Amino acid sequence: MHPVSPHDLAHLPVKIAFNSANLVGRVTGYHFAMESWGQQHEKTVAATTEKEWAAICAEIAAAGYEAVEVWLAHCDPRATDERRARALRRILDDHGLMPIGLAGALTEGSARVCQWMGIPAANGGLWGTTLADVRRITAETGLRFNYENHPEKSLQEIVDRIEGGSPGIGLCVDTGWLGTQGIDAAAAVRTLTPLVRHVHLKDVRAPGAHDTCPLGQGCVPIRGVIAALRETGYQGWYSWEDEPEDRNPMEIAREMRDLIARELAL
Q: What is the total count of domains within the chain?
Protein backbone atom coordinates (compact mmCIF):
# COMPACT_ATOMS: atom_id res chain seq x y z
CA MET A 1 0.00 0.00 0.00
CA HIS A 2 1.17 3.54 -0.78
CA PRO A 3 -0.32 5.92 1.85
CA VAL A 4 -0.67 9.56 0.89
CA SER A 5 1.37 11.47 3.43
CA PRO A 6 1.25 15.16 4.40
CA HIS A 7 4.76 15.46 2.96
CA ASP A 8 3.49 14.22 -0.41
CA LEU A 9 0.71 16.78 -0.44
CA ALA A 10 2.84 19.65 0.81
CA HIS A 11 5.06 19.79 -2.28
CA LEU A 12 2.11 20.45 -4.57
CA PRO A 13 1.61 24.21 -5.24
CA VAL A 14 -2.14 23.79 -5.69
CA LYS A 15 -4.48 20.83 -5.33
CA ILE A 16 -5.43 20.36 -8.98
CA ALA A 17 -5.96 16.87 -10.34
CA PHE A 18 -6.69 15.39 -13.74
CA ASN A 19 -9.77 13.15 -13.75
CA SER A 20 -9.01 10.26 -16.07
CA ALA A 21 -12.74 9.86 -16.77
CA ASN A 22 -12.01 12.70 -19.20
CA LEU A 23 -10.68 9.97 -21.46
CA VAL A 24 -13.99 8.10 -21.77
CA GLY A 25 -13.92 8.74 -25.53
CA ARG A 26 -10.29 7.70 -26.06
CA VAL A 27 -11.05 4.11 -27.10
CA THR A 28 -13.33 5.28 -29.93
CA GLY A 29 -11.26 8.17 -31.24
CA TYR A 30 -13.15 10.71 -29.11
CA HIS A 31 -16.46 10.06 -30.81
CA PHE A 32 -19.25 8.56 -28.71
CA ALA A 33 -22.68 9.38 -27.30
CA MET A 34 -23.06 10.11 -23.59
CA GLU A 35 -25.82 7.51 -23.29
CA SER A 36 -23.27 4.84 -24.30
CA TRP A 37 -21.07 5.58 -21.27
CA GLY A 38 -21.41 2.01 -20.02
CA GLN A 39 -20.17 0.64 -23.33
CA GLN A 40 -17.24 3.08 -23.26
CA HIS A 41 -16.43 1.91 -19.74
CA GLU A 42 -16.27 -1.73 -20.84
CA LYS A 43 -14.17 -0.90 -23.90
CA THR A 44 -11.80 1.10 -21.72
CA VAL A 45 -11.44 -1.78 -19.24
CA ALA A 46 -10.46 -4.06 -22.12
CA ALA A 47 -8.08 -1.51 -23.68
CA THR A 48 -6.22 -0.41 -20.55
CA THR A 49 -3.07 -2.48 -20.63
CA GLU A 50 -0.10 -1.38 -18.56
CA LYS A 51 1.43 0.01 -21.77
CA GLU A 52 -1.72 2.03 -22.48
CA TRP A 53 -1.84 3.29 -18.89
CA ALA A 54 1.78 4.43 -19.20
CA ALA A 55 0.89 6.33 -22.40
CA ILE A 56 -2.04 7.99 -20.65
CA CYS A 57 0.09 8.96 -17.64
CA ALA A 58 2.76 10.41 -19.92
CA GLU A 59 0.18 12.66 -21.58
CA ILE A 60 -1.27 13.77 -18.25
CA ALA A 61 2.16 14.61 -16.84
CA ALA A 62 3.14 16.43 -20.04
CA ALA A 63 0.09 18.66 -19.53
CA GLY A 64 1.50 19.81 -16.18
CA TYR A 65 -0.51 17.72 -13.73
CA GLU A 66 1.00 16.11 -10.65
CA ALA A 67 -2.11 14.37 -9.39
CA VAL A 68 -4.74 12.09 -10.91
CA GLU A 69 -8.23 11.02 -9.95
CA VAL A 70 -8.28 7.52 -11.44
CA TRP A 71 -11.43 6.59 -13.32
CA LEU A 72 -12.77 3.19 -12.27
CA ALA A 73 -12.58 1.88 -15.85
CA HIS A 74 -8.79 2.28 -15.74
CA CYS A 75 -8.52 0.03 -12.67
CA ASP A 76 -11.78 -1.92 -12.73
CA PRO A 77 -11.68 -4.51 -9.91
CA ARG A 78 -12.98 -7.20 -12.28
CA ALA A 79 -9.73 -6.87 -14.23
CA THR A 80 -7.38 -5.69 -11.48
CA ASP A 81 -5.72 -8.00 -8.99
CA GLU A 82 -3.11 -6.88 -6.50
CA ARG A 83 -0.20 -7.37 -8.94
CA ARG A 84 -1.86 -5.23 -11.61
CA ALA A 85 -2.94 -2.56 -9.12
CA ARG A 86 0.59 -2.18 -7.84
CA ALA A 87 1.89 -2.04 -11.41
CA LEU A 88 -0.57 0.75 -12.22
CA ARG A 89 0.62 2.63 -9.14
CA ARG A 90 4.26 2.21 -10.13
CA ILE A 91 3.46 3.68 -13.53
CA LEU A 92 1.84 6.68 -11.84
CA ASP A 93 4.92 7.08 -9.66
CA ASP A 94 7.21 6.81 -12.69
CA HIS A 95 5.43 9.81 -14.21
CA GLY A 96 5.37 11.87 -11.01
CA LEU A 97 1.61 11.49 -10.59
CA MET A 98 -0.12 11.02 -7.25
CA PRO A 99 -3.45 9.14 -7.19
CA ILE A 100 -5.65 11.32 -5.00
CA GLY A 101 -9.01 9.70 -5.63
CA LEU A 102 -11.00 7.05 -7.44
CA ALA A 103 -13.66 8.34 -9.82
CA GLY A 104 -16.28 5.72 -9.08
CA ALA A 105 -18.39 4.01 -6.47
CA LEU A 106 -16.97 2.56 -3.27
CA THR A 107 -17.62 -1.18 -3.26
CA GLU A 108 -15.79 -4.18 -1.81
CA GLY A 109 -13.87 -4.53 -5.08
CA SER A 110 -13.01 -0.88 -5.61
CA ALA A 111 -11.97 -0.59 -1.95
CA ARG A 112 -9.40 -3.34 -2.47
CA VAL A 113 -8.04 -1.56 -5.54
CA CYS A 114 -7.84 1.72 -3.62
CA GLN A 115 -5.89 0.06 -0.82
CA TRP A 116 -3.48 -1.62 -3.23
CA MET A 117 -2.92 1.63 -5.15
CA GLY A 118 -2.83 3.94 -2.15
CA ILE A 119 -5.93 5.88 -3.23
CA PRO A 120 -7.48 7.56 -0.17
CA ALA A 121 -11.04 8.21 -1.33
CA ALA A 122 -13.71 7.25 -3.84
CA ASN A 123 -15.77 10.00 -5.45
CA GLY A 124 -18.90 8.82 -7.21
CA GLY A 125 -22.49 7.70 -6.90
CA LEU A 126 -24.04 4.78 -5.08
CA TRP A 127 -23.80 2.68 -8.23
CA GLY A 128 -23.99 -1.01 -7.40
CA THR A 129 -23.91 -0.39 -3.66
CA THR A 130 -25.86 1.13 -0.78
CA LEU A 131 -25.13 3.83 1.74
CA ALA A 132 -25.13 1.19 4.49
CA ASP A 133 -22.43 -0.80 2.68
CA VAL A 134 -20.41 2.35 2.07
CA ARG A 135 -20.58 3.21 5.77
CA ARG A 136 -19.30 -0.26 6.65
CA ILE A 137 -16.47 -0.14 4.10
CA THR A 138 -15.27 3.29 5.21
CA ALA A 139 -15.30 2.14 8.84
CA GLU A 140 -13.40 -1.07 8.06
CA THR A 141 -10.80 0.38 5.67
CA GLY A 142 -10.33 4.03 6.63
CA LEU A 143 -11.11 5.01 3.04
CA ARG A 144 -13.35 8.00 2.48
CA PHE A 145 -16.37 8.30 0.20
CA ASN A 146 -17.69 11.50 -1.35
CA TYR A 147 -21.06 11.30 -3.05
CA GLU A 148 -21.12 12.89 -6.51
CA ASN A 149 -24.33 14.65 -7.49
CA HIS A 150 -25.92 13.76 -10.85
CA PRO A 151 -29.72 13.60 -11.17
CA GLU A 152 -30.62 15.64 -8.09
CA LYS A 153 -32.50 18.84 -8.84
CA SER A 154 -32.15 20.40 -5.38
CA LEU A 155 -29.48 20.69 -2.73
CA GLN A 156 -31.69 18.94 -0.21
CA GLU A 157 -31.88 15.91 -2.48
CA ILE A 158 -28.08 15.82 -2.61
CA VAL A 159 -27.72 16.00 1.17
CA ASP A 160 -30.41 13.37 1.62
CA ARG A 161 -28.44 10.90 -0.53
CA ILE A 162 -25.85 10.65 2.24
CA GLU A 163 -28.32 11.23 5.07
CA GLY A 164 -26.49 14.32 6.21
CA GLY A 165 -22.99 12.85 5.93
CA SER A 166 -20.53 11.55 8.52
CA PRO A 167 -16.78 11.78 9.24
CA GLY A 168 -15.98 9.32 6.43
CA ILE A 169 -18.75 10.31 4.03
CA GLY A 170 -19.16 13.71 2.42
CA LEU A 171 -19.91 15.29 -0.93
CA CYS A 172 -18.05 15.48 -4.21
CA VAL A 173 -19.63 18.50 -5.86
CA ASP A 174 -19.87 18.07 -9.63
CA THR A 175 -20.32 21.62 -10.90
CA GLY A 176 -21.26 20.43 -14.39
CA TRP A 177 -24.17 18.38 -13.15
CA LEU A 178 -25.32 21.32 -11.03
CA GLY A 179 -25.33 23.34 -14.25
CA THR A 180 -27.23 20.62 -16.09
CA GLN A 181 -29.89 20.67 -13.38
CA GLY A 182 -30.12 24.47 -13.46
CA ILE A 183 -28.62 24.93 -9.99
CA ASP A 184 -26.34 27.90 -9.28
CA ALA A 185 -23.07 26.10 -8.51
CA ALA A 186 -21.43 29.03 -6.71
CA ALA A 187 -24.38 29.43 -4.36
CA ALA A 188 -24.59 25.67 -3.93
CA VAL A 189 -21.04 25.24 -2.65
CA ARG A 190 -21.62 27.96 -0.08
CA THR A 191 -24.72 26.19 1.18
CA LEU A 192 -23.10 22.75 1.14
CA THR A 193 -19.81 23.91 2.70
CA PRO A 194 -19.82 21.60 5.77
CA LEU A 195 -20.13 18.52 3.54
CA VAL A 196 -17.95 19.41 0.55
CA ARG A 197 -14.82 17.23 0.61
CA HIS A 198 -14.00 17.03 -3.12
CA VAL A 199 -14.83 18.99 -6.28
CA HIS A 200 -15.27 17.92 -9.89
CA LEU A 201 -14.73 21.22 -11.67
CA LYS A 202 -16.71 20.94 -14.90
CA ASP A 203 -18.64 23.23 -17.26
CA VAL A 204 -21.60 22.43 -19.54
CA ARG A 205 -23.04 24.34 -22.49
CA ALA A 206 -26.52 24.91 -21.09
CA PRO A 207 -29.01 23.66 -18.49
CA GLY A 208 -31.08 20.66 -19.45
CA ALA A 209 -28.30 18.66 -21.07
CA HIS A 210 -24.84 17.39 -20.15
CA ASP A 211 -22.79 18.70 -23.06
CA THR A 212 -19.42 19.39 -21.43
CA CYS A 213 -17.19 22.23 -22.60
CA PRO A 214 -13.97 24.02 -21.62
CA LEU A 215 -14.16 25.80 -18.28
CA GLY A 216 -15.60 29.29 -18.65
CA GLN A 217 -17.36 28.61 -21.94
CA GLY A 218 -20.63 27.27 -20.57
CA CYS A 219 -23.35 28.08 -18.05
CA VAL A 220 -21.42 27.22 -14.87
CA PRO A 221 -19.94 30.26 -13.05
CA ILE A 222 -16.50 28.67 -12.69
CA ARG A 223 -14.78 31.76 -11.31
CA GLY A 224 -17.60 32.23 -8.82
CA VAL A 225 -17.39 28.58 -7.75
CA ILE A 226 -13.67 28.77 -7.06
CA ALA A 227 -14.06 32.10 -5.27
CA ALA A 228 -16.86 30.69 -3.13
CA LEU A 229 -14.83 27.61 -2.22
CA ARG A 230 -11.86 29.76 -1.25
CA GLU A 231 -14.08 32.04 0.84
CA THR A 232 -15.55 29.09 2.71
CA GLY A 233 -12.09 27.70 3.52
CA TYR A 234 -12.24 24.65 1.28
CA GLN A 235 -8.91 22.77 1.43
CA GLY A 236 -9.65 19.81 -0.83
CA TRP A 237 -8.87 18.90 -4.41
CA TYR A 238 -10.10 20.47 -7.62
CA SER A 239 -10.41 17.65 -10.12
CA TRP A 240 -10.75 18.99 -13.67
CA GLU A 241 -13.44 17.06 -15.53
CA ASP A 242 -14.49 17.28 -19.18
CA GLU A 243 -15.84 14.25 -21.06
CA PRO A 244 -16.41 15.58 -24.58
CA GLU A 245 -18.18 13.44 -27.14
CA ASP A 246 -16.43 14.88 -30.19
CA ARG A 247 -12.98 16.19 -29.23
CA ASN A 248 -9.82 15.20 -27.41
CA PRO A 249 -9.75 16.90 -23.97
CA MET A 250 -5.98 16.52 -23.79
CA GLU A 251 -5.72 19.35 -26.30
CA ILE A 252 -6.90 21.79 -23.61
CA ALA A 253 -5.67 19.96 -20.51
CA ARG A 254 -2.77 22.31 -19.75
CA GLU A 255 -4.89 25.38 -20.47
CA MET A 256 -7.55 24.19 -18.02
CA ARG A 257 -4.99 23.44 -15.32
CA ASP A 258 -3.47 26.89 -15.74
CA LEU A 259 -6.91 28.52 -15.61
CA ILE A 260 -7.74 26.84 -12.31
CA ALA A 261 -4.33 27.71 -10.90
CA ARG A 262 -4.78 31.37 -11.82
CA GLU A 263 -8.18 31.53 -10.16
CA LEU A 264 -6.82 29.89 -7.02
CA ALA A 265 -4.01 32.45 -6.88
CA LEU A 266 -6.32 35.47 -6.98
A: 1
